[in-house]
Amino acid sequence: MKKITFKEAVGCLTFVAQVTRSDIAFAMNAVSQFSACPGRQHWEAVKKIIRYLKGTSTKKLEYSKQGSTELVGYSDADWGGDTDTRKSTTGYVFTLQGGAISWNVKKQPTVALSSCEAEYMALLRTIQEAMWWNNLQSQIFEEQHPIPLNCDNQSAISIATNGSYNPRTKHVSIRYHFVHNSLQEGVAQLSYVSTTEQPADGFTKPLAVQKQHRFCELVGVSD
Fold first, then answer.
1. Assigned domain for 67 exists
2. Residues 20, 94: one domain?
3. 91 backbone φψ class: left, alpha, beta (φ>0; ψ -120 to 50)
4. Gap between the Cα atoms of 162 and 164, Å rounded
5. Whole-prediction pTM value?
6. pLDDT in tens, 78-100
7. Three-state DSSP class for 223?
8. Which DSSP helix (H) or strand (E) runs through 77?
């Protein structure tokens, strides 16, 4: 493995994932965690990603004038998806004019004790991104509007909007309650979206072929 340019390959593919091919963002986040000491199986995974890109070389990130002119955010988390650490993965995406304009995949810093907690922790990073977009819009249009955010966990939405804390969630770090305060201040407006219509789902876990096709459609990556 010392003779294999693993880091260089990961670096190139990460650039692609961050700029136009959001459909490989989760895979790149997974393999990049082993850059310090990669094994043969990690290199095989990188080659699979390269083969996937070669087979879908006609796919590109597209925007349409028929698409929605409203900036919309989606937040999701895969509870305990990392089999080594049992940490959850946060994924979010913001779409505009039928395509993704901002997305991110990141492992959560602590172990969540429930899917609700993992989703609530994911909302923190999504709210931070929403605040940045809100500030940008205020500089361009000189006005601010709450950005619609969508989540597929009703319990996390209840905690974030109503502050309905209970003994099962009182251990959550106080910094995550920044979500509740931001919603009260009108930074964003949180709503429920079904998992089947959740584009952020593809940033938190590997998907089957049909779901991967649907994921590409939702984030605007098409032929």
1. no
2. no
3. beta
4. 5
5. 0.91
6. 999 888 889 999 999 999 999 99
7. coil
8. strand 72-78
